[in-house]
Amino acid sequence: MDKRTKYFLDEESIPTQWYNIQADLPEPLPPVLHPGTGQPVGPADLAPLFPMELIKQEVSTERWIDIPEVVRDIYRLWRPTTLYRAHRLEKALDTPAKIFYKYEGTSPPGSHKPNTAVAQVYYNKQEGINRITTETGAGQWGSSLCFGGSFFDVEIKVYMVAISYHQKPYRRIMMETWGGTCVPSPSPDTNSGRAMLEKDPDCPGSLGLAISEAVEDAGTRDDTHYSLGSVLNHVLLHQTIIGLETKKQLEMADAYPDIIVGCIGGGSNYAGMFLPFVKDKIDGTKPDLRIVNVEPASCPTVTKGLYAYDFGDVAGLTPLLKMHTLGHEFIPPPVHAGGLRYHGMAPIICHLHKLGLVEARAEHQLGTFEAGVQFARTEGIISAPETDHAIRATIDEALKCKETGEAKTILLAHSGHGHFDMAAYEAYLAGKLEDYAYPEEAIKKALANLPKTG
Ligand SMILES: *Cc1c(COP(=O)(O)O)cnc(C)c1O
User: Fold this and answer.
1) Is the pTM of this model over 0.90?
2) Distance between Cα 309 and ligand 1 center (Å)
3) In sequence order, what are the residues at sequence separation of 6 or more whose Cβ sits closer than 8 angstroms to the Cβ of residue 436?
4) Whether the predicted pLDDT of 454 surpasses 80
5) Residue 440 in 3-state DSSP?
6) Fewer CB within a 10 Å sphere, N or C end of the chain?
7) Whether pLDDT at 1 is above 80
8) Which residues are registered as beta bridge partners of 160?
9) CATH number for the domain including 312?
10) Helix or strand holding residue 118 (H, E)
11) Are 419 and 280 contacting, i.e. CB atoms less than 8 angstroms apart?
């Protein structure tokens, strides 16, 4: 029996270029629109918020984009990450399926997010920017950007979704340790924050609202740019380092996936994994590859949302993105997977979904923790509640293989560890974890208020 469990790459094998799916799309992405004019936005519209290099990457159709040497040197601190074969989970499930997982939890902040955080701070610093604002859900993105800021002496101000700020104080302390500042959102520091606090002083916050605050802060100060940890094309581009490494590692294992599974909040970790593989689907070499996006049933953006133009934030400050959306005013129930509580989705994923190249499914909170605990008790890793969604779907696909007797190869994008989510695991283990149904009424209401275009 093949007992090999870990597939390592040497530091010298860290990719030197990111892969840009825009070079290979069968149809180009729909344009991003200016909310005032309804016309496509140009670089000048985005320049107050983003450095020009990132604006160029956002619309680039070059297939390969060089990773700056400084960024690649910082990647050496934790990359390449390890690809694992989940022998013990396979055995517990008694499945003929082969399960591999690529684990991003070994980065210092504990997830995939520093892959783009370091690059984004670098490009801002190159343009002379010394202060960056951002939002964070569960705290992984905020801590990753603060981690990135520490290498380049850039001041980071983080607006953290209030529910997570209170549930996860240690994330804030990480941000402060890396030299950043973190406030709960809604905050009294911005107009959008103050307006929401007036309406509802106990507002649990949402990613969309925190984005409003961070964008407003950056838009009203010349010395400040804004940074987004997911959704946008350049973020997904930076994350492709995950899939590029994985391809090399699977070659070492003489394997290619039949099914790739990952969780989607804004879509960055999972797209980072699957984009280099979706290329094989587009060019016809792997037509049967299944790419399964997993989202929470309480925030079912792709499975229940509309594919329409919407704002990225609650206050309507961002350009309009064509994406699956639950409506920018929708505030999701306070599930523990804070990183998946977002009303929209990466336009690239939505476009691929429309083209029939990827699929999506939604999972309930209780089932995801059950899967996460089974993973911890077999593979050892205590996973982020976000990742538990992907683990649920991976286990279900492996159990299907048990029924049919098919020895499929399943690749799980494992986005991070759950060491700051122990209160959630405690609630689950005590049988006290709340489940949340599909919030149909709230979504209907929010979808009635989509912005008008054209
Ligand atoms: C932020 C986060 C997610 C969700 O964000 P994506 O952009 O969809 O990847 C998923 N898992 C972990 C561990 C995260 O930190």
Assistant:
1) yes
2) 23
3) 296, 297, 298, 333, 335, 364, 365
4) no
5) helix
6) N
7) no
8) 136, 184
9) 3.40.50.1100
10) helix 114-126
11) no
The token pair that represents 404 in the structure block: 């049919």
Whether pLDDT at 440 is above 80 = yes
Tally Cβ neighbours within 10 Å of residue 94.
9
- Asked whether 387 lines ligand 1 (CB < 6 A), one says yes
Residue 312 lies in a domain: yes
Q: Residue 44, exposed/middle/buried by CB under 10 A (0-12, 13-18, 19+)? A: exposed
Amino acid at 335: V
pLDDT at 389 over 90: yes
- The string of DSSP codes covering 58-111 is HH---SEEEPPHHHHHHHTTTPSPPEEE-HHHHHHHT-S-EEEEEE-TTSTTSB
Which residue's CA lies nearest to atom 3 of ligand 1? 339
Q: Going by CA atoms, what residue is nearest to atom 15 of ligand 1? A: 140
Residue 156 maps to a domain: no
Provide the token pair at 69. Answer: 């040497």
Ligand 1 probe mutation, 101, 102, 106, 111, most atoms within 8 A of CB: 111
pLDDT above 90 coverage of the chain, percent: 89
Residue 416: CB within 6 Å of ligand 1? yes
CA of 454 to the centre of ligand 1 (A): 33
Ligand 1 site, residue 263, Cβ cutoff 6 A: yes
**Domains identified in the chain, total number:** 1
44 part of a folded domain: no
Q: Are strands 83-85 and 98-103 parallel, antiparallel or unpaired?
A: antiparallel
Nearest CA to ligand 1 atom 14: 339
Tell me, yes or no, whether 121 lies in a domain: no
Instruction: Verify whether ligand 1 is closer than 6 Å to residue 268 (CB atom).
Output: yes
- For residue 137, what pLDDT is reported? 83
Q: Where in the sequence is the domain holding 302, given as residue range(s)?
A: 6-13+68-110+234-447
Q: 210: part of which helix (H) or strand (E)?
A: helix 207-219
